[in-house]
Amino acid sequence: MADGLTVNYSTTPQPYLDNRKIVNPARRLLSSDSSVNVGNWMRPSTASCALLAKRAVSEKFMVKNLVKCFKRTKKYFDPAADPEHYGFDGGIHTIGGRKYPLRDIVQTSMETLGHKYNPNATNGDPVSLKDFVQDLKATSDSTAVRQYSARVYIPVGIDVLCDTPAARILFNDFKRATSV
Predict the structure, then answer these.
(1) Most exposed: 8, 33, 137, 158, by fewest CB within 10 Å?
(2) Are 44 and 126 in contact (CB under 8 A)?
(3) Which burial class, exposed, middle or buried, applies to 87 when counting CB atoms under 10 A from its CB (0-12, 13-18, 19+)?
């Protein structure tokens, strides 16, 4: 896509794939790159959150504290899932449990190469093989329109200015951005 919104993170030529490059696009969009990654929302790792908390000088960025926020946003598809990690009352509905034709073959191959399957990749260690859970559910039976977070959580008091460079972000004493 040469639309100015796509970033090409394709790999270098892979010797075991006849020197082909693996396409890995990402999008520059307001609500992340769900238009490319089919709505797979991964939670950050414990290590990433610890680094962010250290740099922000705030414990609220630790995984144990962020999980509360993650849970509030989701209505997880499996009602038997662990309530310590999953939310069931949020506005963003998930879809999961799909079995794709090559799933077992790919999983066996990856495990043979030393990659481990993690049935609970939301526990702070997302780097693994995991089941595919989408955050894009059809909004009704009669339409192909999918749910997006902006349709579920309407931002109030926020002005969005696209293609507008920012020179500075001003913060108050509580390290909260007050203006751009």
Answers:
(1) 158
(2) yes
(3) buried
